[in-house]
Specification:
The chain has 229 residues and is mainly alpha-helical. It is built from nine helices and two strands.
Length: 229
């Protein structure tokens, strides 16, 4: 029976990690439009796409709205070189449709993860093994931090290589290979932007994991005091 409890606890911890990761991505990318504003200034994006900041931020807001499923298409007109033009070409639209599918799939997996955590929580409370669940979650989080640190170090040695590998794993076509001479999307989110964003996601994700470990430790101490252990 103990083996079943441990397996169930690890499964719950993995589901929780998935929830935290997807939420970290959402916070890093969606929550603060000021982040895009800083990145655009950092990499001189406005000069590359020949746009005013307010116009580019408008395009960005609409793009993120599309990725979240709150907008049905990417037909976005704005002022470029002093003229009203459509921002995205057909290739970019097709690629962003794939990205949208990936983002929405992540949201679905998060809902599944939440359902799993709730079910496991009820199961462990029913079995009066909630302290065991807290211990497993805390231990799993600590182990995962070590694994992530190793992976992050490996990726940092050649970000371009692993960035390409990521796209080949998650996209079944080559639409993600964009040309800065013809595709504006690659100019507003160049590779250094993704490096910064990966670091931002990692910091948020790491903070959440630490927070979960702290909460688990507090709850375990409270539980020991109640039982007099």
């Amino acid at each position: 029976m103990k083996a079943i409890h441990i397996c169930a606890g690890v499964f719950c911890a993995l589901a929780l990690l998935l929830i935290l990761l997807i939420t970290s991505i959402e916070i890093a990318v969606y929550a603060d439009m000021g982040y895009f504003q800083k990145e655009y200034k950092k990499y001189n994006v406005l000069e590359k796409v020949h746009m005013q900041e307010k116009d580019l931020l408008f395009v960005t807001e609409q793009m993120m709205s599309y990725l979240k499923g709150n907008r049905q298409d990417l037909y976005i007109e704005t002022i470029i070189d002093g003229e009203k033009k459509e921002f995205f070409n057909e290739k970019e639209k097709a690629h962003m449709e794939d990205v949208r599918t990936l983002f929405l799939g992540g949201q679905l997996f998060r809902k599944i993860g939440i359902a799993v955590c709730l079910l496991m929580g009820v199961f462990f409370v029913w079995k009066n093994k909630q302290n065991l669940l807290l211990q497993i979650i805390r231990a799993s989080m600590i182990c995962f931090v070590g694994v992530v640190a190793i992976i992050a170090f490996i990726i940092s040695t050649n970000f371009s290589k692993y960035f390409t590998l990521f796209h080949k794993m998650f996209f079944s076509n080559n639409l993600w290979i964009l040309n800065p001479q013809t595709d504006r999307l690659i100019n507003i989110v160049p590779e250094p932007f993704f490096i910064d964003t990966s670091i931002r996601i990692g910091l948020i994700f790491g903070s959440m994991i630490i927070g979960v470990c702290i909460i688990c430790s507090i709850l375990l101490k409270v539980g020991k005091k109640k039982t007099g252990v």
